[in-house]
Design goal:
This protein has about 400 residues and is an alpha+beta fold. The chain is built from 11 helices and 17 strands. The chain has 2 domains: about 35-130; about 155-380, Jelly Rolls, CATH 2.60.120.620. The termini are close together. Its cofactor is L-ascorbate.
Length: about 400
């Protein structure tokens, strides 16, 4: 969802006592005239049609009402605010109509915020639902505090070294997972996931900037999962320091020391239409495009792949398992292991060694993935991966 660069106004009519109706009668023409000036050149349609319409996108001011000469009840800050209002209001959305005015394709957020204030001032009163929003804003929900620290035991380090993969359950509590599931589903429902149209993969993905995660209350649930995945490099190093006698190779030790949290993550959805991802390496030197792109984000920079699954109530008939092959084996091998994508399960594996695939899915399958990068490769390329045209984050 684009940052709040539009404005919206919602209105409805209220039955009023005769005395109140008479006291307002003298003001009706003035208020009506002010509103007409605010929405000059405006298109008009039902709220539901407005939410479906591409014409209502861009830098616009919304006015929503149940009829002419009705009092405004809400002034918001963008198309996303209009959608949120439609979803949360206790008013009958079937009776609401929308008019919108285009302010210009390149209108700045500051100009549109000023327009919101101007609209409220022109109305001559504080819309009722805005007053409620202000009151609730003084009691902001605390940002989720779950997640954040990735904890690994000696057995996890040894499995990562021996098998190229470790599977861990229980890093995230139930409440944190419930919120994360709702948030990742919202990414898809809002149309923020896209199919990359790459051969061999059917997933829809959203690339997330770690420094500018999607805004809005509905996406807050992703933050503990992101914090957890970004802590994997430090978590592995903490475990290495605590288990100096662990039986792991110098290659794995070196990778743990060199890996760093990425600037970008990916949320992905595999649909129920047998969507899959064919067997591959996340860091494959045989791939011509392996060393192409922004340092720190190139496939060749990947050290460990870190996945958190967000699939509540997963059962075997949902399929979509993660399949991996023994180190050194190819896809023709009859020796493989399937991992159920259970909600809260975290998988960490060696990006350059583990051949893996996503089996065809029979239900929606969600996951968030981070690829730790090799600091030694990136430091030889540029001072900072952030300085080289980072991928756009969602906002």
């Amino acid at each position: 969802m684009m940052a709040s660069t539009r404005a919206c106004v919602a209105s409805t009519s209220r039955a009023t006592p005769e005395r109140a109706r008479l006291s307002r009668k003298a003001k009706a023409r003035s208020v009506s005239g002010q509103r007409e000036r605010i929405v000059a050149r405006a298109s008009r349609t039902t709220l539901r049609d407005a939410l479906r319409s591409n014409e209502s996108r861009g830098s616009i001011v919304f006015v929503v009402d149940e009829g002419e000469n009705t009092r405004a009840v809400f002034v918001g800050g963008g198309r996303d605010a209009l959608e949120a209002y439609a979803e949360s209001t206790e008013r009958d959305v079937e009776t609401l109509w929308v008019r919108w005015e285009t302010l210009g394709r390149r209108a700045r957020a500051s100009a549109l915020n000023a327009k919101v204030k101007e609209t409220i001032a022109a109305l001559g009163y504080a819309p009722e639902d805005n007053a409620g929003a202000v009151a609730s804003a003084t009691q902001k929900a605390a940002e989720p505090t779950g997640g954040g620290q990735a904890t690994f035991a000696r057995s996890h380090l040894e499995a990562l070294d021996r098998d190229g993969i470790v599977v861990i359950d229980g890093m995230l509590d139930a409440e944190t997972l419930n919120d994360a599931v709702e948030s990742v589903r919202a990414l898809h429902a809002r149309g923020l996931m896209r199919n990359l149209e790459q051969s061999g993969r059917d997933d829809d993905v959203a690339v997330l900037s770690t420094s500018a995660l999607p805004s809005g209350r509905e996406f807050l649930g992703l933050r503990p999962v992101v914090r957890l995945l970004l802590d994997v490099p430090n978590g592995l190093r903490r475990a290495l320091d605590d288990n100096t006698n662990a039986e792991i190779s110098e290659d794995t030790r070196s990778k743990i020391r060199r890996c760093a949290p990425p600037d970008r993550l990916m949320a992905a959805r595999y649909g129920p239409e047998n969507c899959r991802y064919v067997a591959h390496l996340d860091n494959d030197p045989r791939d011509p495009g392996n060393d192409v792109g922004t340092p720190g984000l190139r496939p060749a920079d990947r050290v460990f792949t870190c996945i958190a699954y967000l699939n509540p109530n997963w059962i075997p008939i949902h399929e979509g398992r993660f399949r991996y092959f023994p180190l050194g084996a190819d896809v023709s091998s009859s020796d493989f292991t399937d991992i159920d994508p259970l909600c809260g399960r975290v998988v960490v594996f060696d990006s350059s060694k583990l051949l893996h695939e996503v089996r065809p899915s029979a239900a929606d399958r969600f996951a968030v993935t981070a690829w730790t990068y090799d600091r030694s490769r990136v430091s030889r390329s540029v001072p900072s991966s952030r300085a080289i045209h980072p991928l756009p984050g969602l906002s």
